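Q: Give me a backbone?
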Amino acid sequence: MNDLTGFLNFDLFIGTTVIKILYFAGAFLMPLFIWLVLQRVRSHSPRVETLLSLLAEKTGERIALWLIFALSLFAMEIIWRVTCEYLIAYLQIRQILQILSG
């Protein structure tokens, strides 16, 4: 009960293991998220669908659309990785400072 109260009062923080699990879950779900956003934009805006079709016709194949999808996925994965690394570094620095302060 003491641990639960400490966690809810922000006296105890989640560990780096939880952040690593969160990272891998997010890394696997990120492509699905990007695909869902793309489908939502395409269904709510016919103009975007027209522009994507025009882009696909000009290139001859849908390779440009897949390239945009891949670059978006890569950028989001990098941002997700940096965010999780920042949180892990924060928790490690906090732990070291607590040890040094006694």
Remarks:
- The chain has one domain: 16-101.
